[in-house]
Every structure is written in structure tokens, then in C-alpha cells.
Amino acid sequence: MTVFFNDGDEMAKVLGINDANVPYLEFLLSSTLTTRGNQLTIEGGDERIKDFFSHLARLASTRQEPFAENELYMEWCSLKDGQGDPVHQYDLVVASRSVWPKSRRQKEYVAALFEKQVVFATGPAGTGKTFLAIAYALSQVLSGRSQKLVLTRPVVEAGESLGFLPGDLSQKLNPYLRPLYDAMEYFIPPAQIRRMEEAGQIEISPLAYMRGRSLNRSIVLLDEAQNTTRGQMKMFLTRLGEDSKAVITGDLTQIDLPKRTQSGLVHALGILHDIEGLAVVQFRSADIIRSRLVKAIIDCYQDEEERDWND
């Protein structure tokens, strides 16, 4: 089998700089790959490999950097699962970057972000819950379809006390909201984020400060929602105006609330049924795209928790 790339840049994005991805691709596809100019020759392996490389070549036209190993792995799994080419239907473009679903459940999640007013996303770390929500929100704000992005998290420390934090409100919240900034900085530079904050297009707010507000023409992201109380969750969900959208993300295995305090996310998922305009997407460890190592680690923890529960 032979695949022809349009140019050397497209080929380098797929095969890596100096063909760095070739050994991994040979292992992943059980094939031998030989390059010559813009031509890739494939010996052995699955008959769908040619379609796979043609698919990667199409995706390469929207990228600035080469594919990472975990991205190649997820694209191959997506093709084998018969999910087709997701990029054209669910492409999220933010500034000069483009992202798309890498699994069937991510595809379901992005579709819900476009179609529903309230979206709950639960599951382990590395499944793209927060990252895709940030990508969607920034694409809507930068295009003018939404007025602003509001980011909020419950201020709950994960197993250790940080003590007194100096500075103004923004500086005090920074340790809790740093993961959200990391996601935004993947798409736009820190200087642009600061300008958008000054212009009111991005707002950082503690969950406690949401009480009494009415949010209009906004996309509101509540992250780490497993650490909300029942009262906080009810308060948050009732802040939305008709032209706003809420995305609630959380990992039900990482609740840091005091004992005998029910998680507001758990409670909400238990009572909110058959509501038009609301969607729930539940990710599993199989949906982890951060890295194969993270997936293996989480699987080990889940196995231990199941053994402890059975004992």
C-alpha cells in the first residue's frame, strides 16, 4: 500500500519531525513503514491502514504541530471502532488552533455542547471534559456568538491545607483555577487572556460569589463540581438566563467534601431526569486521551477500589 502526502510539511505533521513517529506507528499498526519523498509505503497490517493515513493527512491541514503518540493512538482506535471522520462535523476552532473529538463519547459531548443549554460531564481525569468545554466556550466568545465565559470552581482543598493565601481575589483563587488557565493558554496567549479579562469577556468567579446573579449571553463552566454541596449546585443551576449555557464537569471518584456531606453533583445527577435542553455525558477510563499511562494508572486504582468494596 502507498500513501501520497501533498507536501513535506503535511507528512512531517503525521510522521513527526525526522520521522520520529514512525517507530510508534509501526508498533501500533503492526506494519513496516518506508518513506521516500512525500510517499509512504506500508507493508503488512490491517487493510484500513491506508484510510487511516489518508484521514491523518486531512487532519494535518488544520494543525500547526506534529501528532503526539496518544493522538495517533486515539485516531486509530476511532477508525477501528467505526466512528468515521469526526473532524468536519465537530471541529472546534479557537484562534489558529483546531481540536476535534477523539472518541465516541467525546463526539457525544461536543454535540451536546452545541445543542443543549445545560451539559453535565462526569468521568476520570484525562478524558477531555474541561479541555473541550474551554475550547467550545472560547470559540463562541471569540466569534461573538456569546458575550463572555464565566469560569468557576468550588474552593475546596484536595486533602491538604494551603493556609492563608496573600493577594487580591484573583491571586487567592489562582491555585484553584490554574488548570482552567492551562487549558485556555493552549489556545490563546496569556496576554490575550488578560485583555479579555479586562474587557469582561472572561470572568473568574468563586462559586460562593454566584449567588443572586443572573447570567445572560454567557457560557458558564463549573469545574470540579463533585465538590459542590447540594445548596451550591441548586444555586448555580438557577443563575442561567435563557440565552446562557452551563457546562458542569466533575470526577465522582475524587470528592473532597467533609464526610456525611452529599456532593451536589451526585444529587443533581440523581434527580434531574427527562429535562429538555439538559444532557449528561458519562466518560469512562476507556475514554482517557491524556496518555496511555494515565489510563493504566486510573484502571489500577479502579481495580483496587472494586476489590476493597467487595471485601
Plain-language structure description:
It is a single chain. With 311 residues, this protein is an alpha/beta fold. 43% of the residues lie in helices and 15% in strands. The chain has two domains: 2-85, 2-Layer Sandwich (Ribosomal Protein S8, Chain: A, domain 1); 90-310, 3-Layer(aba) Sandwich (Rossmann fold). It is globular and about 65 Å long. It starts with a strand and ends with a helix.
Annotation field: number of helices? 12
- The third-level CATH topology of the largest domain is Rossmann fold
Strand order of the largest sheet: 8-7-9-10-6-11
Helical percent range?
40-55%
Q: State the CATH architecture of the largest domain.
A: 3-Layer(aba) Sandwich
DSSP strand count: 11
Please tell me the overall pLDDT: 83
Unreliable parts: 157-163
**Which of globular, elongated, flat, extended, rod-shaped describes the shape?**
globular
Q: Write down the CATH class of the largest domain.
A: Alpha Beta
Cα gyration radius (Å):
21 Å
N-end to C-end Cα span: 53 Å
The CATH superfamily name of the largest domain is: P-loop containing nucleotide triphosphate hydrolases
Strand fraction equals: 15-25%
Counting copies of identical and different chains, the oligomeric state is: single chain
The SSE string, one letter per element, is EHHEEHHHEEHEHEHHEEHEHEH
